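Supplementary notes for students who missed Thursday's class. We covered one full example, reproduced here. Read the sequence, then the structure, then the short commentary at the end.
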Amino acid sequence: MPQAVEAYVSKKNFSEIDMVKRSIIKLYEEDFYKIDTYGRLSKMYNSIPNQLNSGKRRYVISAATQKHTTLKDREKLSELVDSKTVLISCNTTDPAISLSAAADNDSFKLYLADTGLFVSLLFNSQDRTGNNIYSKLLSDSLDANLGYLYENAAAQILASCGYKLFYHTWKKENSNHSCEIDFLIAAHAKLVPIEIKSSAINNHKSITAFSEKYSGKVWREYLFSQRDVGHREQLILKPIYMLPFVLEELLAPPRTPHRSSQGLTDPCSAKNFPGNCDKTAFASLSERQPIWAVIPKIRDYSSNGSLRCCPPVFYSTAADSVISE
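Structure (token representation):
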């Protein structure tokens, strides 16, 4: 939101920014009441962070309105989606390249179209969210499970890149428990499952189970979090701010990995990078330095001169080699 950016530039105060965002939410609510004087739209909008936080497999209208769901409620929900203030993600029951063909319109999740407003709604128990909350959020030191906050950020990124949102749930065999893939997208006539975590990356049973179950349909599998680049066998780990670059790379034609005579790829070979590359950057990457210390050193330009992301790099399980995708 431009107003929030202006507030930060002029005052460098997160509490002031929060007040700007709350005023924007208030404007939204006033518009909602113009459409629905009973306040259902506003309740549906405001309940989104709580419903994501509760771990529900789908959005529940009655949990927002606190009454039995009617046909009118469903119509109002459609109006909320049409307002573009929220994003809808449908549960695809039979994962395939045509994700929308198996979408269950009665099983869906809602996200806010603006993650900044999501944060303000998340901490709206007081009239103002203090600077200390925002400081801890930025330093990843807030004592809370914020996976759903990063999930909302990922939904906003995917939607802004032109993707419709889909997820997938299924029951475990011989169990009452369910597994879930946060997001599913299609690339190169196959599926790309995406899991979102706040910081804990060791628990990734769902995406591993999905990739085993649909091994013939999966192109790549990603887990995005606050942690650095890495891998767990075939699972590619990336910090969440790299999601736009990964999506850009997925749209590019697939590349065949290049190996040297020793079985190693030269990340800086002309075959892999048409632009300039700093070998020191890749040495730093192999030493597991923070990715933000590496990315600025890697320079790769497209034919029109605009800055683009470099191909993702991960370690192959077939050999201890770096493969450029």
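Commentary. DSSP finds twelve helices and eleven strands in the chain. The first helix runs from residue 2 to 11. If anything here is unclear, bring it to office hours.
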